[in-house]
Amino acid sequence: MRLWSPEIPDGGKIPRKYVMPAAGGENISPPLRWEGVPAGTRSLVLICVDTHPVARNWMHWVVINIPPSVQELPEGASGRAMPPGAQELINSYGFKGYGGPQPPPGTGAHPYHFILYALDVEKLPISDRPAFKEVERAVAGHLLDKASFVGYYER
């Protein structure tokens, strides 16, 4: 399975329009595409997590129950154009949907991991505001495949 963004190169910088307004952006969710979803997949889970030590696995986006037939999320999909059945959960900022990067100034480049999980269950039982470890525990027994890429942002 492969996950990528046509706007964020793997290992590259996240464009400003995808970051939070307090960091100079527009908080638009980036376009994401994937391929190679394994046979038997009943749902997909997408997350974006900042693993920088200062951020402590800050959850920027959690989407569960994405139908396996879906192969992309267009730019700005969060809160407006999500696939039927997909459910956006509460991020670490405290609101549903995508919350872009907003690293504290002077803390260096933060890594934002976009991770897609292919699962053998149609609906993932998980809290409305899951921590990264909770997502990992919830998908562990149902994981068929996983794909990811990393974008960086600093102020």
TrEMBL record:
<dbReference type="InterPro" id="IPR008914">
    <property type="entry name" value="PEBP"/>
</dbReference>
<dbReference type="InterPro" id="IPR005247">
    <property type="entry name" value="YbhB_YbcL/LppC-like"/>
</dbReference>
<protein>
    <submittedName>
        <fullName>YbhB/YbcL family Raf kinase inhibitor-like protein</fullName>
    </submittedName>
</protein>
<dbReference type="Pfam" id="PF01161">
    <property type="entry name" value="PBP"/>
</dbReference>
<dbReference type="InterPro" id="IPR036610">
    <property type="entry name" value="PEBP-like_sf"/>
</dbReference>
